[in-house]
Design a protein that fits this description.
The protein is of the alpha/beta class and about 600 residues long. It contains 22 helices and 19 strands. The chain is globular, with a radius of gyration of 26 Å.
Amino acid sequence: TIRHQHNKEAYTMLSVSSAARRRASTIIVRAQNVRYMSTSPAEGGGKPEGPIGEDGRHELWREGIYDHDNEPKVKRRDGSFQSIEKLRGFLNYERNPEPYRRPLERVLDWGELNPTEEDDLHHTEVEQKVQAARCMDCGTPFCQTHTGCPVNNLIPEWNSLVYNDQWSDAIDRLHKTNNFPEFTGRVCPAPCEGSCVAGLVDSPVTIKNIEYKIVDRAWKDGLITPRIPKERSGMTVAIVGSGPAGLAAADQLNQMGHKVTVYERADRIGGLLMYGIPNMKLEKDTVDRRVNLLREEGIEFVTNADIGKNVDVNELRANYDALALCVGATKPRDLPVPGRDLKGVHYAMEFLTKNQKRLLMTKEGNLESSWEKETFITAAGKDVIVIGGGDTGTDCIGTSMRHRCKSVTNFELMPQPPMERAPNNPWPQWPRVFGVDYGHAEVQAVFGKDPRVYSVMTKEFIGDDEGNLKALVTQAVEITDKGPKAIEGSEKEWPADLVVLSMGFISPEEYIAEDLGLDSDQRNNIHAVYGDFRTNVEGVFAGGDCRRGQSLVVWAINEGRGLADSANQYLQQKKADETSSDGRSGAFANLSSLSPNI
């Protein structure tokens, strides 16, 4: 209790002055004398036992002071020190994911959660090899099936390549199925680990960590370079939306030889990756690095182009051979209760986007006087309540902590998940179990308690005489066969200066679909059959969240790749039909592939 009070006092000092911030940083670092251990990619703690040493890695042993050129022996679960081997690695070694940076250090900045190479939490190459050795090379690798990785990553293959120190081949295998492993290696919840065969009887392989290490090492070693298509088809494609689905479709279609132009309504390319995911989870230089690579490979990007508003979508369709819609599911789910219109109640994406824009302005040297102070949403010094869980809810918690909020509470409608799989949630399904994500750990470290409150629903918002939010009222909830039911007489009032609604998204915005006359499904998503991705309008395709509904980044990449395959078939057939109708044949027919002007 004393330590948490000490941490909270240091945390709240940060709004005083730069000198105070430096003093607080010193206090917090000193308060962290206890070793912070992690038992999952998110958070955890405890005294290390078994083969894991005090430094958070498998213990090593070398034969004499001169034995530094050879690989050390590694401690196994039986206590012996032996050379690293893969045949029985899943039995000999413990799961040991690389932990995030310590909560009381990272909450002071907007840097990425993952430790840098200079951080003592960073895994060595030996530890990376040990973790890769735990992969069983299963006869049926569920990690890369429909229950695991949506893009069917060749996980056992690149785990084996990392074990054998073949990093160049590993990034090649990783790129075979995943266009942007540096994104999924950071933000994906890793359903592959939930279906890992080793996890059936023990702990799963640290697949997400290994993916992250492969791609980051590839960038560092210069193994990822522009791939300029050798031939061009002469066919053109317009892609609306530059999120993960749009970028994956653009990458695939460009490599197929088509001329691709991506339109984005925001001022920067990246969509959800740029403004929907906060900087500490995905550094924006990482997004820009990949976008710049795609630009070098021949893809054109157009920003501030709101198709259907400042750019006519039918004109766009007329000027391109195919049109792909990857606009995401951007209509948030609302909370229509009394007091909803009070000042201080905001959607999660509104909160996160404005914060990220200010961070980017600050990084680029914009003076504070140029900031849009009237529209910026700050949690500084406020009692914050985040309604809704999931990744977005956690991101809102983490952002509020970095704003130096007074307190933060997270409401969830459903009961607290069990600590272990329930009977109706067997392997290899995604484990619906209790976990501690980065935002929860930061609140725990500073305020001494988990921010989540389960089985609760908001009844009304309460405001002051000036229309500002000052509190909200909740009711406890019980789950029945007919859904959640409020318990009468369980009302409770909570102080709140800022409420962030993080309850998911219901559908894409309709104006583009309406202008094109596209069919929609029962959930108001753009109707296109999975695997075909064609809409009811000739030459128009749809993929990503706007077609399947809100989902994961890795599913968006899957949809973008599938859309590209379908669009490529359409473009090849269209080109063949045009060539046939022009009466060209032989060598003269091939001239059309050299330039759109020929």
